[in-house]
Amino acid sequence: MDFTLWDIVRNLITGLQWTLALSLVAFAGGAAVGLLVMVMRISDHGLPRNLARTWIDLFQGTPLLMQLFLVFFGGALLGHDISPWAAAAIALTLFTSAYLAEIWRGCVEAIPRGQWEASATLALNRYEQLRHVVLPQALRIAIAPTVGFSVQVVKGTAVTSIIGFTELTKTGGMIANATFEPFLVYGLVALGYFLLCYPLSLSARYLERRLHAAA
Amino acid sequence: MAYRFDFQPVLAHTDLLLKGAFFTLELTAIGAVLGVALGILGGVSRAWRLRPFAQVFGVYVELVRNTPFIVQLFFIFFGLPSLGVQLSEWQAAVLAMVLNLGAYSTEIIRAGIQAVPHGQFEAAAALAMTRAEAFRHVVLKPALGKVWPALSSQIIIVMLGSAVCSQIATQELSFWANFIQSRNFRAFETYLLTTLVYLLMAIAVRLLLNWIGRRFIMRNR
Amino acid sequence: MPLLRVSALHKYYGDHHILKGIDLTVEQGQVVAIIGRSGSGKSTLLRTLNGLESINDGVIEVDGQYLDAARADLRTLRQTVGMVFQQFNLFPHLSVGENVMLAPQVVKKASRQQALKLAQQVLEKVGLAEKFDAFPDRLSGGQQQRVAIARALAMSPKVLLCDEITSALDPELVNEVLAVVRQLAADGMTLVMVTHEMRFAREVGDKLVFMHQGKVHESGDPKVLFAQPQTVELAQFIGMQQ
After folding, report:
1. Which domains are present in chain A?
2. Average pLDDT for C123-142
3. Interface present between B and C (3 or more CB pairs within 8 Å)
4. Which residues of chain A make contact with B66, given a CB cutoff of 8 A?
5. What is the dihedral of CA C140, C142, C147, C149, to 10 degrees?
């Protein structure tokens, strides 16, 4: 069977859509969990703070591939087989949460102590201080590094090809095997990621410059 | 019915896990030395805008940083043979790690060089040093010192990322984990212990790099 | 009964004994000026009064509420005790009006309309009603500090703590802030201020507290103490300031 260039590209685009979908799910889920982990990480209490720190250290100190395997095979142990898509979404969400929590903690800690104190003095409790005074300011400086990290999430999705999720890399692997054109196919796969990631990298850099120009 | 964990079938293969761990460490060591060396070349080219290297490194950095490591690995291992470049599994793994780390460390080290006050360079020039001598003796070490923690983190990221090299049958740690679980059918236990080994390696490499940083790089600060 | 009473207050930072048994009373409507060298514990004392610093021993009683090393209902306490800082600490992401409206809305659950009205009133009081929509970085230091005072007043505190509120200001901006404080005192607000403004302390203060090495070294009527300090340390301190 012969593949035209268009056949290859068409199939890769389908794979690319799954890469995009997984990236979006992982990023949204990771942001939600990451916010929680970040709040725990900056807590006054030792227990949540240490739990959050352990969470971050575990996910930053082990390979994404292993995290993926543990979710994939761990789900099977709990009695129900877990699809590659679900395993990929869960593992990448957890992975993303750890990194975003750490990035955002840095942004929150960059807000001067006096802002916490001034709002404490006005009888706001710690949650209200965070919600109304610190987070809105931290958000401004968090945007650039968060967009920057989204590139890592998109690239991280490529690892899920190993557990059989047919995103861009997996699709590329199958086509490369069928066409015996690995140079062309992997080149196109790389191009696909580049098209997703480069605009994100550029925006992150632009946002960072704008923030520094404003400061 | 509760699942009964059994780590014995994994521990029986401890020798394989250790063998894999050491190979991962070897790959990481070679990748780190060559990758940081490449990053120094790239960093100074970019920081000092040395034509045409600055442009070449600029394109290289963007290409590498905006594509996944595993795709770079596949491109090198499966794609390059069409150009007549046939690399073994470990050579492909090392090349991918060096190129990947080289791109990130180019940007990290560039920032470090730019953070060294220009007066340092001028003082060296006033002492009749050439640009290369000034870089080598006056700029490089403080620049590395400023970014050593970031560089250390990146080396660890590359080490952990090398787990996907099992996909081209490089015989590093995750390769042997795959092998063991295919024999004992204890996938979860096998990967859990393997993950633990990676974690310990990450901690050990971090400590080692911190020590190297204190002992050799940031000594004068 | 005094509005604020501190007794046998101790505070440590690690091994460092910062406050060594402070006793202090503040009557309703009194203006208390706390003076002393840097490191004498005066700012720390002020910060314990609304729980910004925890205490290791002793009791603080404000308007019938107790605060000690073991327990503190800071939420209630801080609605009674307002504070203004040396560095203003306005919220840069909020306009002047929003800075003032935030706490009444969040803490006291005031409606937007109520908070708006309140904010206009207190900003009027500090002479900045027309700056309602401005952002803090558009204001001079003196104006920022007056907004900070208005922000504290919006919570209707019974006591207002002022921590060196003119120290970060250019000299020509000091008086506009002191004028506001003077007016507050005249209106009967209870004020506890750590200050370097000796003339202001003498003219407006009802009570002077001189802190030295973590203790209240001398306290009393400012006019008397400035004229005839009872201790060498206070005499030296006053001498240095002139």
Report:
1. 5-214 (1.10.3720.10)
2. 95
3. no
4. 151, 155, 193-194, 197-198, 201
5. 160
Q: Are B71 and A169 contacting, i.e. CB atoms less than 8 angstroms apart?
A: yes
**pLDDT value, residue C242:** 60
Domain boundaries, chain C: 4-241
CA C82 to CA B118: how far, in whole Å? 49
Residue type, C124: E
Cβ-based contacts of A103 with chain B (< 8 Å): none
- Three-state DSSP at A61 gives coil
C188 HSE (CA, 13 A, CB side): 4
DSSP C219-242: EE-HHHHHHS-SSHHHHHHHHHH-
Concatenate the DSSP letters of all residues of C115-177 into one string: HHHHHHHHHHHTT-GGGTT--GGGS-HHHHHHHHHHHHHTT--SEEEEESTTTTS-HHHHHHH
The first and second tokens of residue C122, run together, are 């207190």
C229–chain A nearest CA distance, Å? 34
Residues 133-152 of C with CB under 8 A from A: 148, 151-152
For C4-241, CATH number out of 1.10.8.100, 3.40.50.300, 3.30.70.1400, 3.40.50.720 equals 3.40.50.300
Alpha-carbon distance A160 to A170, whole Å?
8
| C residues 102-121 closer than 8 Å to A (CB) | 102-103, 106-107
Determine whether the interchain pair A118/C78 forms a contact, defined as Cβ–Cβ distance below 8 Å: no
State pLDDT tens for residues C146-182: 999 999 999 999 999 999 999 999 999 999 999 999 9
Tokens 């206009």 -> residue: C120
Domain B8-217 has CATH 1.20.1440.60: no
pLDDT value at residue B1? 53
CB contact under 8 A, C152 and A136: no
Enter the ipTM.
0.94
Nearest CA in chain C to A128: C106
Residue of A nearest to B4 (CA): A77
- Where are chain B's structural domains? 8-217
Of the partner residues A77, A156, A172, the one whose CB lies closest to the CB of residue B188: A77
| Mean pLDDT, rounded, of chain B | 94
